[in-house]
## 1
Amino acid sequence: MPVKYQKPRGTADALPEQSAAFRNIEEIFSAEAQLAGFGQIRVPTFEKTALFARSSGETSDVVSKEMYTFTDRGGEDLTLLPEGTAGVVRAFLENGLAGEALPRKLFYFTPCFRYNRPQAGRLREFHQVGFEIFGADSFLAEAELIAMVNRALKQIGIGDAVTTKLNSIGCRECRGEYKKALVAYFEQHKDTLCETCNERLYKNPMRILDCKSPECKTVAKGAPVITDYLCAGCKEHFNALCALLTDLGVNYQLDAGIVRGLDYYNGPVFEFVTDQLGAQDAVGGGGRYDGLVEELGGQPTPALGFAMGIERMALLAEKCGCKFPKPDAGRLFIIPVGDETRPRCALLADAVKAAGISCQAELSTRSLKSSMRYANKAGFDFTLILGEDEVKTGRFILKDMKNDRELSVGGESELIAVLK
Ligand code: AMP
């Protein structure tokens, strides 16, 4: 029979096993956050549309083509988060964190929504873990973030499959000169560039470096590189960062093609890429965005951050054969014999769980044989059959499902001791 309802295109269900892989990744990043003093922030899943137009830039793909925007019943123009940073900056300002001690370090987990063409590794709803630092202008901040990501990837087991790519896109001043040089270069190749890149040639020529079309990629290879146009300040910051990363043992590659898709970046930008996920090669990325807090109405505040795609990290982990702890089937399954003992099963299960041991009582009124079959399939370590006799004598027979043996235990506390 065909399934009546199917999930919307570009979305995914994560069943318990996959959720366990996601949670494992989340726990690794949470632990890193704790070590470096990042506090978790939870912001709404939708924001006023104007926030993204303002922060991400009207010419970015995310804003111009990919946002899930709608008008609610009250006529408010809203958008599901396409990324995490804008909402965090909004919350940082709205809650007065800008007036507290800086730097302030925040991290988050959020679903993101982008209306794009779904393919392997590219969804319309996906999840990110992101870290942001506000009020830090030193290159030490970038180095801390990049080293942290590398440590987390190593713990997940995908460290060797991911390369850190690094570039600097300079400040407004360096970019002015650079953009002129880029326009002059791309003008000579107008006929080869795709339609979109022709449109952005004068509005935002750096985007062309980010284009995925093979023709544009080839043209982009010969383009002037931003690092030749950095001002003294940007150059110094970038060189110091590179030197520190080397000292920290971070394996990185300089790549002039890393420009990031959003308008708010400046200075060092980075991406964590893999060659094992086909076209969707970025597992994460970030950089400095010194102008964004001011753009959204705050005082000038140097800031930076990164976001990693949780599904892509999990996909890569699977490709790399990483083993995550499987969701626990359960230690004990208690099966009643006869309706009278059912409540006793619930009481015993409750006591075992109170002792911190996973335990389930049979919730269905099926036969003993079906219950046993279920316990076997579900993978419980032990089963316990509770009949009138057991209730009367207070002795239980504990069946060890993995080792095919039986143990006789006298009462609740001995049972708990044995299971522990
Ligand atoms: P971005 O803000 O585009 O750099 O995204 C940061 C990370 O989120 C990427 O490196 C991916 O790992 C992940 N990501 C971005 N877009 C998608 C998508 N459509 N589906 C799944 N993951 C995505």
## 2
Amino acid sequence: MSILVSPQKRKKLLKKLLISIQNHESAIIEALQNDFKKPPFETYITEINYVISDLKHTISNVENWSKPKRVWPSILNFPSSDYIYTEPYGRVLIIAPWNYPFQLAMCPLIAAIAAGNTIVLKPSELTFNTSQLITKIVEEVFDVKEVVVVHGGAEFTQSLLEKRWDYIFFTGSVFVGKIVAQAAAINLTPYTLELGGKNPCIVDEGADLEIAVKRIVWGKFINAGQTCIAPDYILVQGKEKYNFVELLKKEIIRVYGENPEESKDFARIINSKNWHRLNEMIDHTKVLFGGITNENEKYISPTLLDEPSLNSEVMKDEIFGPILPIISYHDENDLENIISKYEKPLALYVFTNDKKFAERMIAKFTFGGGCVNDCMVHFSNHRLPFGGVGYSGIGAYHGKLGFDSFSHQKAIVKKPNWGDNPIRYAPYKNKLNFIKKVLSWL
Ligand code: NAD
């Protein structure tokens, strides 16, 4: 049985965590600056404030979420009162990625604590400063029997996966997601996989291009494009392409200046391996804008690529960097042919003034979640599930859904000892026709 049985104790721990994070605000900003020059504004909005707001919401609701919920009883059990009890799974392993290293370690941790689990948390080895700070915060707040932070790379993570867990929560690539799923299968361990994918961003004929480019440039180049729900590639209606591209170029210059390398608002690529991976994706014969790189600085400028082939390097896998392919389409068949070529994405975005077109896109394609006339912002509503489908993930979290992901739901029927109906008991002789009649009325 978990040692965090009492919802009051969980709430107390979460409050302590909130204070500790608030006290370390400037250290978090500094750690992310040192890890990949993440701009302080972006760290505040996407890491610190996001986690704080998730914590406050969870603190306000944890006791209520933990209570048994009464549901309508079945007439077949009359008289009875029926409940759903939630209980923690037990010992949980959380594995986090590097791209939002604080938020993507802390938010699953908050949900797992709220649900009453004990946790081993493995942050990314690629963000040394943030991962060390996470250890410091966790050690300040939790007893080692409640939460432990461990550090290591691929081999170490695999050794963790060999152990038996009651739940595994993984955020990262599809490749490692499959390793996690295979390891979980050995002990039939339940899991959540928060993965990535190629997220299409459709710009329809007649869309408001001025607002579309603002929101796309923000969504694509925040965190230097290293965001699982960033628009991966643009599908723009052919007639709008010229104006759209010209506005995109202007907006990138307005936001990051003529030389984004000098901008304090543009992050770096996490490591050399990823810098090389991205550098190879830039086909210089296709560059519409940008295409400037600096290996020493792990810098890749915001780059627009013109009509790359669907079989080219940049269109094979998730880009996960500041490179944006622009592909034109003519009709909905083109959209279907292109989007369906890839696995189900984590996100899909539609910029349009045609509500029916937006509804058709939502209905036609399967994807984790998305927006109409914006990108990424579905992430910020804790009332919406956040998760993928197919290759982009299994399960979802955020808000109450996070609590649910880390809880086992027990069905309980409570019966009094009066009103015992003898019909269900053998011998069944002469009861069949009667029961058929009764059941047909219900
Ligand atoms: P990754 O899969 O390389 O690493 C994630 C975690 O797995 C790390 O803690 C790492 O130490 C561990 N790991 C790495 N290789 C391993 C191996 N061979 N065996 C066992 N464990 C291993 O992912 P990443 O590079 O840290 O993050 C980028 C990926 O994460 C992208 O694909 C992105 O789309 C995805 N992502 C998804 C979400 C989401 O919420 N759906 C959020 C952020 C990132």
## 3
Amino acid sequence: MTLKEEIERRRTFAIISHPDAGKTTLTEKLLLFGGAIHVAGAVKSNKIKRGATSDFMEIERQRGISVATSVMGFEYGDVKINILDTPGHEDFAEDTYRTLTAVDSVIIVIDGAKGVETQTRKLMEVCRMRSTPVMVFINKLDRPCKDPFDLLDEVEKELRIGVRPLTFPISSGPTFKGVYNIYESNLSLFLTGERQTADAETVDIALDDPRLNDYIAPFAAHLKDDLELVDGVYEPFEREEYLAGRLAPLFFGSAINNFGVRELLDTFIKIAPSPRPSTTEQRTVGPDEEKMTGFIFKIHANMDPNHRDRLAFLKICSGIFERNKAYMHVPSGKLMKFSSPNAFMAEKKSIVDEAYPGDIVGLHDAGNFRIGDSFSEGEKLRFTGIPSFSPELFRYIENGDPLKFKQLAKGLDQLMDEGVAQLFVSSLNGRKIVGTVGALQFEVIQYRLEHEYGAICKWEPIQIYKACWLQSDNRAQLDDFLRRKHTNMAVDKHGRLIYLADTSYALQLAVEKFPDIRFLFTSEF
Ligand code: G4P
């Protein structure tokens, strides 16, 4: 197969949802369809259950699962599918954001009874920033759900994206009959007796067929009215709009019952984009360029503390990645060969000889790589759009054992490279401040420093409302700001200036008083 053909047959995407909406269940059903797994229950949820924040075994278990299921590749017909898993716990949202930089499209799962929830809204913001095409799967139709039109409105308003239902549900909960496939003009019947086993029975039937009543009485008339309304209200589906990230095709179903999933998957492989061009600071890189390029979007420490090596996840952006070929690690300028790069098929890892754009390769790393690092065949490229988000929680970190100073510094450095949290150094007193997106991260850091690096850390409170990166073309104004806010300034690991606003009022005042300074809440690595 040519490089172009390999690219065209690849679909690299992530499934995102608010916890409990059904992401793990849907992932598993997709793998079952692909023949990648054969029994239900093979994909473990990587959720940390609420209330388990101090259960370190739970954290380790979660890390173990998340490395095992980080990438799930499988073949479906002629298509090579790569599903990139995202952490289930909101405290790991930043990891999810970064994973989204490595996908070409996204499937959003929404619980039909709950509608759009907070986490979904936040993740959609990231998709919007990158114009990522999204498809929506409204799940749990076997339970009493909100009215489908209310759900469509909610998705449109809350996620700020146009919607187009491609299937439409017939009732929900105990009276759920199935979904009507609008474009194929057929009916998938939800037969409760066949739950959890096979595909649903599908009947090709036009809406004006009198037999419709036999199948879905007493909802036939209702369905016709609903579909007329759908046609009246929603524009016909246009793939270009979907690819531009402006229109989300929408499906209804029940993941646990394997219902509506095949429709989703079959449409997905038809319309979802194959690997797209990637932007770098220097130029746009087309996937079909001959030379290999890629970037690291995730680093995972070895679960076994006796083996310090880490697994770095490289997304191939162009060309063919080959085992034992020398590539340039762009930040260091060093040439490196990888004798045992990993490919990820379903829940297994294996050594791979070749990988193509859209694929993810696991590289063993002795601690030299950072998130955002690029690899090439010599060209100095820096991929953009791998964001670092303004953390929401802050604490001073102090050394708890004077004899272990070096271990602490090294451990902290490596954990930051993995993207577990962000480290700032205060300009006021030179103290180190750790910023995270969730409280759980502080416990993870403390636990891992102790168990993997033999270092003891202590946390001390600090009052910070938000950290923002500063940019300005007005040097005088920036200098004035730095003078006045000296005590609130810090630098990040790249030496960039960070303003640590202690209250929302202080931030608001600063924004008003210094109009030529841009206060940024996301930065790129
Ligand atoms: P997540 O990864 O998005 O967090 O969700 P997950 O798939 O783990 O699903 C959350 C819960 O919702 C699970 O129940 C799962 O069985 C259930 N679920 C998923 N899809 C459907 C569906 O179509 N209909 C119904 N009724 N339930 C569904 P749980 O009780 O938390 O876990 P489990 O004990 O069943 O594994």
